[in-house]
Design a protein that fits this description.
With 93 residues, this protein is of the alpha+beta class. Helices cover 40% and strands 30% of the residues.
Length: 93
Amino acid sequence: MAYLQITLRVDPADRVAAADVYARYKSPFLDAISGAISKELLVRDEDVQVLHGFQSVADAQAYLESDLFSRDVTGGLAPLLKAAPEVRVHDSI
């Protein structure tokens, strides 16, 4: 299993809008992205994280190049971000 962790710096006032983007694309992610297993929204005082579960690292990397991520999700989040997202791919052993 692999994980894609995306950390987003979003003002507290914009977190509801960021959560709406998450909710809008959760089902399409799980239904259409190869190897997608899970997607969770984690809200902390300092940031918001989205943790995606995949069958493999290759699946996670392919998602980052997909239209769903690069056009839809990124486009929806762009006006809300205070900094570039921090993207990490983790492989579990």
